[in-house]
Design brief:
5 strands, alpha+beta, two-stranded antiparallel sheet, 3-stranded antiparallel beta sheet, 6 helices
Length: about 200
Amino acid sequence: MSPVAFSSPLRNVPGTSVAPAIGALVGVLLAALGILGLLYWSTASADALSRERQHRLIGNVLRQSAAQIAHDQESVTVWDEAIHQVRRSQFDLEWFDSNLGIWLHDYYGHDGAYVLNSSDEPLYSMRGGERGKPEDFNLLGKEVLELVRELRDNTRNSASVELAADQLSPTATDLLVVDGHPSIVSVTLACTRRERG
């Protein structure tokens, strides 16, 4: 077998060199890399901007939901009859089902409602639209009780609690894990019209 010889057509043309062709190829490759880098940077920037907008949106939705839940609660926590019912020696569970616990579930869609006395002992419980045992409050976790105590401490240690213009009673809200699910928890103090001033 005889060897095959290869020759470049540029070699046979007088006055030509391979260097300009290589330079042009390197230039095209650098331009392509620059374009790819620019595409990657713009995509990453757009993703970061999108994530930032989503975080702001989620934050706004959570704040609005927490404010709405607190507002819903005030429909019963500033009602003088509800306060009188809590303070009665004979606790009327049927009244609380119809006017507070199950009513909050049916009317506003609240997943749970609990009534505690001034010593943070549970008196009433509603979960999922059904009356539970008062002790069910203890299943919520210590974070919920800490939120209750935080609200009580804030109202005790302050000569006057500042409320928002549309707020009638002191409230504490937080995003907590309840039964393994993130939940907006709102704690509101119940007080009569006279106690509110």
